[in-house]
Amino acid sequence: MTSDRLEELRDALNGLARWSADTSRWEDVQVLAGRATPLVWEELKAREVWHELEPADRAALYWCLHTGHRINLGVDPDIGDWRPLFAELARECAYFASRCTPGHPERWPEARHRVHEHTEVVPALLWYRSLPAAWRPEVFRALESTPGTARDSADEPPSLWDVLSAVQRSALHEDAPRTEGRQASGDGIDTAELFDSLPEGWQLETVRRLAAGRRPRRTVTAAREVIAGLPLFGVRLLPAPPP
Question: How many CB atoms are located within 10 Å of the residue 19 CB?
Fold first, then answer.
């Protein structure tokens, strides 16, 4: 059964999909983006689905709140094209809306294939944790240094699974990673330390994003930024894991 909140969310996602830099008012899309995640968050709680979500799903919802807030503020010199953030926001909101209305996937087509993504990357997280501590930064260094992240490009970079496999092979044949000629900012150590400090659910959500081709340094840093910014929404996670 649908609700007024989900009807409003459907209209908001449709509006985000129709937005055009040439014909649409930026202020309109800011309002839609800022309202979308709170709508589905309220619906999850009203239907008592929120308390059933795994920590990684809660981390994903919190990250979605942060994404909507960034769009709502609309001031970020590092973003030249906002449309990928619109698509991310719509996909995540649709996924959580589908959790509120199981059995009606046709109503939330943006969430297609999203449902099993956390389960699919659990082995990757366990694989990463099984590596010797000295080799874990190599995973982030290798992912950071690959030329591009688009999975559909002609020159497709190695996947997270490829990198984990390569690092594991190296760890079996070498005592320690080679560090000659590397820059400190790109050696992966800072990224690994920050990643390892994240709560478990946030680690899994971060790995899901890495598996989709995101850059590790920016993604891991963003996870911490999201956690630090959650008091804006009445949520305090530091220093404890998500409730």
Answer: 17
- Read off the tokens for 217: 């340094």
Structure tokens at 202: 């946030």
Q: Residue 159 burial (CB < 10 Å; 0-12/13-18/19+)? A: middle
SS3 of residue 82 by DSSP: coil
Model's pTM, two decimal places? 0.88
In this predicted model, what pLDDT tens digit does every residue of 152-189 receive, in sequence order? 444 567 899 999 999 999 999 887 776 655 554 457 89
Please state, in angstroms and rounded to a whole number, the distance separating the CA atoms of residues 171 and 239.
33
Side-chain half-sphere of 180: how many Cα atoms within 13 Å? 1
**CA neighbor of 69 nearest in space, from 114, 30, 29:** 30
Q: What are 198's two structure tokens? A: 């994240």
Most confident region among 19-33, 127-141, 171-185 by mean pLDDT: 127-141
